[in-house]
Each structure stands twice: as C-alpha cells, then as structure tokens.
Amino acid sequence: MLSVAWLIPLLPFIAFWAILFRGRRLPGEGAYVAIGALGLSGLLSLVILGQVIAGATYETSRTWAVMGRYAFEIGYRIDALAAVMLFVVTVVGSLIFIYSIGYMHGDPRYPRYFAYLSLFASSMLTLVLANNFLLLYAGWEGVGLCSYLLIGFWFERPAAARASMKAFLTTRVGDLFMFVGILVLFASVGSMHFGTIFAAVTAHQLTGPLLTLAALLIFGGAVGKSAQVPLHVWLPDAMEGPTPVSALIHAATMVAAGVYLVARTYPLFFGSPDHTALTVVAYIGGITAIMAATIGIVQDDIKRVLAYSTISQLGYMMLGLGVLGYTAGVFHLMTHAFFKALLFLGAGSVIHAMNTNDMKAMGGLARAMPTTFATMLIGSLALAGVPPLAGFWSKDEILLEAFHHDRVLFYLGAVGAFVTAFYVFRMIFYTFSGSLRSQGAHPHESPKVMTVPLTILAAFSVVIGLLGAPWPVVGNLFHRFVHFEAAATVPFDPSFALLSTGIALAGILAASVIYWWKWVPSAMLRRALAPLYSLLVHKYWWDELYAFAVIRPTVWAARQLRTFDTYVIDGAVNAVGLIFVGLARLYRIVDLYVVDGAVNLLGWITQAIGNSLRHIQTGRAENYLLVIALGVIALAVLGVIR
Amino acid sequence: MLSLIIFLPLVGGIFILFTSKGNEALMKGVALGTSLGSTIFLVFLTVLYKIGGGMQFVEQHSWISNLGITYHVGVDGLSLPLIALTALLSVLSVVYSWRIEVRLKEYLFLFLLLETGMLGVFAALDFFLFYIFWEITLVPMYFLIAIWGGPRREYAAIKFFLYTLVGSLAMLLAILLMYFNSDPHTFNMLALTQQQPLAGKPVLAALAFWGFFFAFAIKVPMWPFHTWLPDAHVEAPTAGSVILAGVLLKMGTYGFVRISLPMLPDVFRAYAPAVAVLALLGIVYGALVALAQTDLKKLVAYSSVNHMGYVMLGVAAAAAAFGVPEKAAAAATALNGAVFEMVAHGIVTGALFLIVGVLYDYRAHTRGVNEFGGLGVRLPVYTGITTIAMLASLGLPGLMGFVAEFFIFVGSFGIFPYLTAVAVTGVVFTAAMFLWTLQRIFLGPVNERWAALPDMDTREKVSLVPLAVLMVVFGLFPKPLLDMINAAMAVLVTAVR
C-alpha cells in the first residue's frame, strides 16, 4: 500500500472539486462524498501505519521542473512520524467531518463547507507526506488558505471577515521567514529534498551560524502556524469560524503542523552549534505555554478558553522538542489532537444547545446534556494531566525532559500545568455545574451524529496515552516507534509522575475552591489582583502593540508613498511635460515675433518702399514729360558745369 | 504559418473597414473569427514546435536589401509562450468587448491592428521590423484610450503615447548604434547576438544599453518610470487594460531578455545591481502604494508594478551571473522564473482587469473599493473567480503566480541574497493588499445599494473561466510550459558564455 500513498491526499482533493461543482446534487449534499473520501484515506492510512509498525519505510520522487542544472523534485516519504500524523489527521478528521453533519445542518452554504474541509484535508495530508520543502510549502500554504476560507466561512459577520484576514496575514509573516529559510538551505545545499539537506548537515557541509540561521528561519514558519509567541494573536480570533473547524484546523491538525515541521526537520535544529536553535524553540515554547495558559483563566467565551489552551499546549510541544524530548513533543501532538478535538466538539455541542459562546450565560448543563458533560469531563481531565488519561503521559514526559535539561524551562512548564488544570476546570464548573444563568434558553442534548464522535474521541482520550506508558517488558511503545536516534531520552520516573499528578490535582482543587464550592468568590480575587487581571484581560497587550507598531505604520507608509507617487514622481513627469509645453509656447512666440516677424518686416519694408514709390507712377503724360524735361535740364546744367 | 498568424488579425481588421456600418454582427464575427483563427493556427504551430529546437518556423525574405533589412520572423521558447498569451488575451478581449456600441468598426479595426503589432514584436528577428511593430502597437492603444476611455482619457492617452515614444527614440538610437558597429552592417537580431558588435567598445556599449534600457524600462514599467501606467489603466476601456497589462508590458521585459541580455551581456552585468535595486523598489513600493489605493483599477495597476518588479529582479540576477559558471544554474532558474512570471502575470492580471470591468462596466459604475461590501452573498461565481485570481496574484501555491515567484526567488537568492530576502517581504504586502480588497468588496454584511446586482453572464464567463482554469492547471503542472521556456533560456545562457 505504500506505493499508492499518493492516493491519501488525492481522494479528498477530488472530493473538493466534485463538491465545488456538483454541490447539493451529490449524496448527503456533498457531506457523504467528503466523509467517504477522507474515510478511504483513513483506511489506507491505517494499513500504512500497520506496515510501518512492521518496519517498512518508503520514499519516491518525481521531477516537477528542470532549471538548468537544478532538478526540482516532488515526492513523498513514509516513516514513523508521517504514519502517526496520517493516522491522527484522518481519524480525527473523519470524526469531525461526521460531527459537522449535525453541527452545520441547515447552513445555506452547507456543501461549500464540506468542499473546504476536503481541500483542507488534502493540503494537510500533502504537508505530512512531503519529502521536500517545495511540496511541504505548498501544503503549508494550502492549509493556510483553507483556514482563511473557513474562519471567514460566515463572512457576513464583520468579525469573521476580519479574523480570517488576520489569520492569513499573521501566519504569512511567519511563512516569509520560512521561505527565506528554504532559500538559504537551497542556496547552500542545492536541493529542497529533506534527505539531501540532512545529509549535508551530517556531513558538516552545512554548519555553523548559517545552519542556526536556517533552522531559526524555518522555525519562523512554525511560530506563525502553531501560534507561538509573538505570532499567536491570530488563533483566538480564529474562533469566529464554525466550531468543528476550530476543532479540526485550530486544535488538532493545522496548528500542530508547526510542531510537525520542527520534528520533520529536527536534524537542522539538532545540528545547529550548541543546540542554539533548539534552545530558542524551547524558550519560545515555554513562554507561550505559560503566557497563553494565564490568559485562558480570564476568558468568558468557551471557545476562547480552548483557543488559549491550544496555544499553550502547542507551546508544550515546542518545549518538549526544544529540550531534546523529540518523542515527548510528538507524543503530546498526538494525544492533544484527540482530547482537544474532543473538548472543542463538546464546546460545539454546548454552543449548539445554548446559541451562545458566553460561559457566564451557561451553568448546570450537566443534567440537560449528560453525554456532552461526561465526554468533556474526560477531555478536561486528559488536558489537566490526570493519570491514566492521555494528557498525563505526554505532558509528564515533557516536564521530565525539561527538568533534566533546563530548570527554568521546567518551572515555566510546571506553573503552566497548574494553570492549565485551573482554567479547564473553571470552564467545566462555569458550564456544567450550578444552575442555568440565562433566561429563555432550552438546553438539550445534541443529536447522535454529534454525540457518537464525542464518545469515540473520549475513548481515544482515555486509552491513547497508554501507548506511551512504561509497560513491563515492552517499555514505552510509542518511543520505540517514534524517536530521534541522536537524542537520548530520560526514562520514566515514578516519583516525578507523582509530582506532575500533584500539580494537576492542585490546579483542579484550586478551581473547585473558587468556582464550585465558591469558598473564595472570584470577584474578590479579581479586585485583589486588579493589575494582574488587567494584564490578562488585555492579553498582555499584544494586539495593541501590533496595531501601534506594525499595522498603523504600514498603512501610514503606504498612504505617504501614494502621495509621494502622485505629487513627486508623477509630478516630475508632468513637470517635464509642462516644460516642453512651455518651451513650445516660447518657440511659438519667437516664431511669431522673431522669425515670422523678420519675414513680415521684410515684406513690410518692401511694401513701404512700394507705397512711397507708387506716387511716381501717376499714368499722366504731362507728368512724365515734366520729369523728362527736368531731367534734360539737369543733364544740361551738369554738362555746363563740367 | 507564422506570418499567417501575425497578419490574419490585420486582414480581418481591413475587411471590417470595408463592411457597411450597420452590419455589426458581421464585424464582430470577422473580429472573433480572425483572432480565433490566428489562435487555432498557433495551436497547430505549438504542436509542431520542437522543444529545444532553437529558433523555429523562421521566415526570411529580403526587403530593403541595400540597407540589409529583411522580413525575418521566427519563434523560440521565449517568444512562443508570449505569442500564445497575446493570441489568447486578444480572443478573450474581443469576446468581452461584445457589448461595445460606440464606433464599433473603428474599435475592432484598431484592436486587430494592435494584435498584429504585438504578435509581430514577439516574432520579429530583424531590428527594423521589430521597431516597426513596436511603434505599430502604440497607435491603436493611443486611440483605444483616447476614444473609448474614461473621463480623463485625453490626458492619459497623450501621456502614454509621449512617454513610450521618448523611450522608442532612445531605442532607435541604440539600434542604429548596433547597426553601424556591425560588420557587415545588419539589422538581423540573431546575427547581432552572435557578432557582439559592441563587445570591445565599453562606452558605445553603455550608450546602447541605456538606450534600450529607457525604452524597455518605460514599457515594463520599472520604478520610477511607472506613473503613466495607473493613468493609462484607469482611463482605458476594460479590454484595453487587459491588453495593456497582459501583453504590452511584457514587450519591455521581452526586450530585456531578447536584446539587452544576449547582445550586451558585459554592460548589463556591470549595471545589473542597479537594475536589481530599481526592481526591488518597484516590488516593495508598488505593493505599498497599491495597498493605499481605493480605486480598484489603480490597485491592480500598482500590483502590476510590483509583479513586473519580480520579473526584472529575475532578469537582473541572470544578467549579474553571466560568465560565472558556478552561478549558471541559479541564473537559469531566475530567468525561467522571470519568463514564467511574464506569462503568469499576463494571465492573472489580464483576468483581474476583466474582473474590474465586470463590476464597473455594466453593473456598479464605480470602482471605489470602499463602496462595496458583502457581494459574496449576491455574486457567488464572480466572488469565486475573483478570489482565485487574487490568490494567484498573491502567490499561493497551486496557482500560477507561485510557480513564477518561487523560481525567481530561488534563482535570485543564489545571486543577490540580501536583495532577494528584502524582495520576499513584498509577498506579505501583496497578500495584505488583496485580502483587504476581498474583505472590503465581498465580505461583511450586504451593502443594500448593490443588493440587486446580477452575477456574471455568459459573455463574462467565457472570457474569464479559461483564464482561471489556466491559473490552476499551470499552477499544478507547470512542466510543459517550463520545459519550453527552459530550453530557450539554456540556449540564451550558453550563447553568451
């Protein structure tokens, strides 16, 4: 099956065109086509995963374009990392596609929604399979486009339109760095193929600051896509899109592409002198993890809580990769995809029932929506890191790696873990406990088509972490499958696991004290910690900073240049034109009065002479006789005198 | 066959002049028939064309023999894609112009004359012939703007005409410089490329280079010679804008690649960094000024300044690398990208001007970007095609613009790394400009003023859908076109070294 893996992205791509053109005439108004295509890709991915576990790898390329000596090839590579990603994208993707049937029911642009989802799946799978930067970049921009289209799916809402543009442009700033990074790599190695580039790194053909620079530029793309500080500002706004989109694109798959990119190009980071590039990755990840988690505490929009949670968890993945925990980072990517998709879909179910995102208007939904509540509780425990659920195993591994690598990073991560447990249970208590705060709402459980995917994802969230558990005899199964040879991993440590469980439980306990038992009213805390609260509520003022430092100067510069163009450059052109027109006028004057004047003067003089002389010509014989007589007399006088 | 392709539109145009005034159907039929006929012959020619076979379908007849002037035409991988682009855009423009009512006969005649002129420029291999075709294109475009244009058409038409004419004069002097220094005296462009008549004469070569430079840089247009472009575009009728942006601008870059690069390589190499800096200014400056525009047509016009900057960056990079064997591959990549960008820009920007026309000509009668809003709900097909064209223009992978920009950047980076790194930032500004435009026109709540606008009709779809299809097809499978271009560029690069 490895040799037909190109079908995996192709099937959803065909579905995209089919739904775009046939739309409502297709079965299920296009939804069944999209699900069928992705489902087939999923089956194929499962078979491939099996083959890869059995030890197979596969790589193939074909020429896309030839330029002089350069041959630009595109191709795909299937190894453990790619197989895991294929599994996550197709399985989580299929469940979200099915869920969407219920969630998007009755939307006027229903078929187009599934068309965009299919295009997204196709681009994402292309990105995962690519064995070179060219194809990866194409998939990378493709998922960015789909993210743009789907965030702005309800484009009649100005907020959605703005958010979609913000998302595309912010990630494109990151992509700019990544593209320059690709250019640097190509200029020094002469190839875009991962294997060739990594071989050049291993052979010390590409070393030193240039390698660090290239790795950091590539990381720029990951910072944009995975919403890491300082390019994280687009992801919370992206929640304007439909909730299944947030689950698929902005939680489980696309935003994890940045983490995947770092994992995929790990030799670049690992090879950079003194692991400088990895240190940057780790610190960006650690700062993001804690910064986003703290903002998550003060959000009242249920989706925004989850959005900040996603940013924070992506930070953990980066942190894991940065502290040489290659397996830990990738493992957290996988577990997070399941429990975060679950949480988003659960939130979608709640929003579907309540018609609002505001948690302050909810409350007591546990009775009305038992399945949603139970599954979301599992997701929240998994996110908080309570054993034996999925999140515990992966997060514990990351913290353990950080602890042995760099204590500062460990403290960032540990505090972040406490805050994570706190904000997610704040969300649970606000939403499901107490009594309903909004008047006139009639919450009800969502249809089967939505709750079944929730249940399946909840089951995954319970068991998938066990793959990374320290089993007797076989050990850590996931680590055996996905690992980076050169990076040694720290073995599982029971006392450390106890510590990380303690952190999670402490967070849950703190949330219970404030939001369940209400021993400490939250309003009092807000007042007591007013400056901190203000900092968090304003999201550390990133948006304001960008508006002040980037957007306004750019628009200002553009306007100034427009004026410059009209008045200076075009003014110069017009001035040249006017000078010639002026010269022409001057020539006309010279011509009229000097050149033509001279001609006229000559004529005038001739005429004047003629005028004066014409008096001689009288035509009378006696006058002529008189002249003749006078002449004769004059001649006679002259003769006498001589 | 090549001459037939070039002159068939002119024959149709002359025939139209002799039809009776009332018979509009016949006039339109002849215009469409001859431009389409020319395209069909071109398809045959492309099928017969052998990739890597050098100059093909060459026709050479003596013309003014005591001056060494011949009628000499031919195509290679550089000119064939541009000829195809010209033929295609001409047919689509004729289709789009179906609803022209004012002075139809003159319009169609001028349009077909323009097509012959453009085809001739790309096919001519004799400098005298090249110059004649070059000037022929000027006259019909002048009248198209001056008669069928917008409110300030006379100003725009005269500015366009005079600006380009000044450039042409500089080119004429440069041509004569080449002619009088060749031995034997010849206008044959292929012979001149081989002879390199100005190789050992740096002063004369520099003079000739700048002569050509002014002609081509004004046509491209390069910064700071670009200000005729927005005026001409804003005032020109839609089909005129399409041809202007799609084809006429390419005459400038074609000149750089066909003439400046192979005939004066040493001077070009010396001045290449300066040219690259001007190109870079065009890229960043064009994108930023476009960002500030509120007139949709001006916005697209400035985006052309930006895109033609990419082309010139590629050409300048290739020029700078001449004679340096280890940079030959990068030079070939940059040059391929530049030529591909010429075609891509022709298709994409041609489509964008048609798109502006669809909205302006028969629907809203305004081009103010800020006056719209929410059209996405009312005009789904139009929105879809506009989105594809704008995404192609901002360089999204899978569409044509990306392929071009990608190769230009990859090639140029090996030669001018810092300049190219700065040029890449243009990509963010272009994205901002087009997305902001999309948002202001199509997204948000429906503006009630436009609630009754109809979606695209058949005529508009016929002229736009082929372009959208080409953007996707060549965006995913650029190889056929790239192979053709690459073969010609390989000849060009080796011919000089």
What can you tell me about this protein's structure?
The complex is a heterodimer of chains A (642) and B (497). Chain A is mostly helical and 642 residues long. Chain A has helices at 7-22, 31-53, 80-103, 110-129, 133-151, 158-189, 194-202, 208-225, 234-237, 243-252, 257-264, 266-271, 276-297, 302-322, 326-354, 365-368, 370-384, 390-405, 407-432, 448-463, 477-481, 494-515, 522-528, 530-537, 542-613, 621-641, and strands at residues 58-67, 70-78. In chain A, α4 runs antiparallel to α5, α10 packs antiparallel against α15 and α15 (326-354) runs antiparallel to α20 (448-463). The mean pLDDT of chain A is 92. Chain B has a two-stranded antiparallel sheet with strand order 1-2. In chain B, a hairpin with a 4-residue loop joins β1 (56-64) and β2 (69-75). The mean pLDDT of chain B is 91.
